[in-house]
Amino acid sequence: MIKKFFKTNELFTATKIVLFLILSLLALPCCAFSEELPTVGDIAQKFQSTYEKTKDLKANFIQEATLTSVKKTQREEGRVYFKNPKNMLWEYSNPKGKKLVINSKTAWLYLAKEKVAYKQKSESVFQSKFLINFFAGSGKMQDDFVIKHAEPKAIDKDGNYLLMLIPREKTAACNSVMLTVDKNNFYILQVSFDDVMGNSTTLKFSNIFINTGVAQKMFQFQPPAGVQIFEMP
Is 94 among the domain residues? Predict the structure, then answer.
């Protein structure tokens, strides 16, 4: 179970990268790139102002993770919520009852079926320079990533944009990131990333809404009675 927590902790770090990218791209004006591919500079310069204007975000997600060691793909889905600053909730409908809850003080992984909850200080999670910059509002995409159009093709069969991002800070959580960006509204359709072990994760987002007034209480968690709690370092 401890191993499962750390795998989820790595996923948490990687999904922070995903949200960083979503916030960077959500407000891109369609008219700016209607006739041609957006440049790396066009995308990167939007992050700071967009992040500052984004108070909260919610979206449906489908997550598929493939472990190379066992050659097995696991599919999970649910809804993700983000509230600025330092608040995130991954609420799973499959598997039902699974939650990953993070606020400024505590990170919780709750597995209802197993009747266990793993607790960790948020400061232990926010160890990455990238994450510190992100939550401080000072992160810049080109400082944290080498960004380029995907090769050999920069668009998919539907004309959507494909970008490759390589983190400048090497971590086990994320080796590279591939984005599929909607050609019409510039919402992120899909994110794929690999870790240094060759494991891959794909996240697909839909029904994305920003600044709808996500309640702070959603990021508070109290394990139900009878749940075994493990304190993590």
Answer: yes
Strand partners, 191: 179, 203
Flag whether 165 is in a domain.
no
* Whole-prediction pTM: 0.76
In this prediction, residue 127 has a pLDDT band, given cuts at 50, 70 and 90, of: low
Percent of the chain with pLDDT over 90: 23
**Based on the structure, what is the number of domains in the chain?**
1
Q: Range of 225's domain?
A: 2-142+198-231
Q: Is 97 left (phi over 0), alpha (psi -120 to 50) or beta?
A: left
CATH number reported for the structural domain that contains residue 206 in this entry:
2.50.20.10
Query: Over 50: is that where the pLDDT of 95 sits?
Result: yes
Query: What distance in Å separates the CA atoms of residue 124 and residue 106, rounded to the nearest whole number?
Result: 9
What does the alpha-carbon distance between residue 78 and residue 188 come to, in Å, rounded to a whole number? 17
Residue 35 lies in a domain: yes
139, 21 in Cβ contact below 8 A?
no
Is the pLDDT confidence value at 19 over 60? no
Residues 58 and 185: their CA atoms lie apart, in Å, by: 17
